[in-house]
């Protein structure tokens, strides 16, 4: 056998083995035991979109088109995504700057698109490394990268100014057009300051808010009580509320703190879903076992 044919044979064999491994796993994931998982679905405000109680966050240390999950590599990323799905997590939280769009598209070989909800985010603040595209071209680029006809939720990413609605007007108009075309179902913002959150609470444009929330103030935009009160105001107005940094971006490490933070958020009646960055299967199991106990969904 020639060297070329040998390499081609090895490459084909490895690809076939990987395909067989994932096809077996995906066959299992398509039979989610809802009684075991207790992950939903839950309604996201008045958007009409149902999501799992937990979103698979792909932006652990996400920046400059990389994240901890991106660094896992394509096959481990897919394996982890399918494992999340098998535990009832059908909601994926991604963003342009995490660099995970192309990784996510590989799941369509194993799970039908309509069984998964995707939330992504577009970056609008100039940086020397950021891919700032014309607003009207962003959603189509995202759809191509994700290999999907539509995106469930698109957020304007990481806003810190009270003036963000005016500063991002061109992007908001482009997202409105995408909603009219039916290629985006809901729009909103992720906030990283109290001023930006306050502006979001007053905006009729926002369908979905992604906010940092926990009970110990780790990396929050105000006190836990004030943040929760503002989220309640938005929730009562029909906005979908998604919590992030439930464990303070890794700062909340003790058993008692993690449990109490989850209880604070999940029992609030305000937060529809939470995004958790879990780069290992054991992290997934730990978090979901806690949530099952808290929500009385244990088998």
Description:
The chain is α/β, with parallel strands linked by helices. The protein has one domain: NADP-dependent oxidoreductase domain (TIM Barrel, Alpha-Beta Barrel), CATH 3.20.20.100. Helices cover 42% and strands 16% of the residues. It is built from 11 helices and 10 strands. The strands form 2 sheets. Strands 3-4-5-6-7-8-9-10 form an 8-stranded parallel beta barrel, surrounded by 4 helices. Strands 1-2 form a two-stranded antiparallel sheet. Strand 1 and strand 2 form a beta hairpin. Helix 1 packs parallel to helix 3 and helix 8 runs parallel beside helix 9.
Mean pLDDT: 84
Which CATH class is shown? Alpha Beta
Alpha-carbon Rg, integer: 20 Å
Query: In the CATH hierarchy, what is the architecture at level 2?
Result: Alpha-Beta Barrel
Pattern of helices and strands: HHEEEHEHEHEHHEHEHEHEH
- Side by side, the strands of the main sheet go 3-4-5-6-7-8-9-10
- Helix content, binned percent: 40-55%
Overall shape: it is globular
Number of strands: 10
CATH names the topology as TIM Barrel
Low-confidence stretches are 1-20, 26-30
Strand content: 15-25%
Q: How far apart are the termini?
A: 56 Å
Structure annotation, total helices = 11
Structural class based on helices, strands and sheet pairing: alpha/beta
Q: How many separate domains make up the residues? A: 1
User: Please, what is the oligomeric state?
Assistant: single chain
The description of the largest β-sheet is:
8 strands, parallel, barrel
The CATH homologous superfamily is called: NADP-dependent oxidoreductase domain
